[in-house]
């Protein structure tokens, strides 16, 4: 069974110890991500690997998988956006450590440990999102627009159909 990840993790200590974690994170708990979501329903699957690299960098590597509901900026209907994010962060305490970090790591400035893991995950997801999300195929926008109009027309006709039936009785 895959459990929820803890809210906060002591990243430096876990990197020293070399720990791996796998768990679920509710979208609703990712506060920094919420403003861009069409719906806070759902969860993401997250794996985290903490360790010490051969050159002495304490790192947090991981994957984030799942799907988000975003609002298409062309038709304004919701769209599912699949996530498959990989990241490799080097833990740093200061700007100076950040400058020394090997290129293959993105810096994660740890100002206080334990670190709010939801913020780290939110930031990694935000980095991968398009600035203006739109359905990949413009046809999808047109189809959605048609789908949403049809039931409306049906509902508008219904009361008249009922009235017509009454008149005939
Ligand atoms: Zn669209």
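^ structure tokens above, recovered residues below v
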């Amino acid at each position: 069974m895959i459990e929820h990840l803890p809210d906060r993790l002591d990243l430096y200590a876990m990197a020293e110890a070399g720990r791996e974690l796998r768990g679920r994170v509710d979208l609703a708990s990712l506060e920094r991500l919420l403003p861009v979501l069409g719906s806070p329903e759902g969860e993401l699957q997250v794996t985290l690997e903490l360790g010490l690299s051969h050159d002495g960098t304490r790192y947090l590597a991981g994957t984030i998988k799942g799907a988000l509901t975003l609002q298409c900026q062309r038709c304004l209907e919701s769209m599912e956006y699949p996530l498959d994010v990989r990241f490799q962060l080097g833990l740093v305490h200061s700007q100076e450590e950040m400058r020394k970090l090997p290129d293959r790591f993105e810096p994660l400035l740890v100002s206080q440990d334990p670190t709010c893991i939801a913020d780290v995950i939110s930031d990694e997801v935000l980095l991968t999102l398009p600035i203006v999300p739109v359905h990949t195929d413009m046809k999808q926008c047109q189809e959605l627009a048609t789908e949403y109009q049809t039931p409306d027309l049906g509902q508008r006709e219904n009361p008249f159909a009922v009235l017509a039936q009454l008149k005939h009785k």
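The mean pLDDT is 88.
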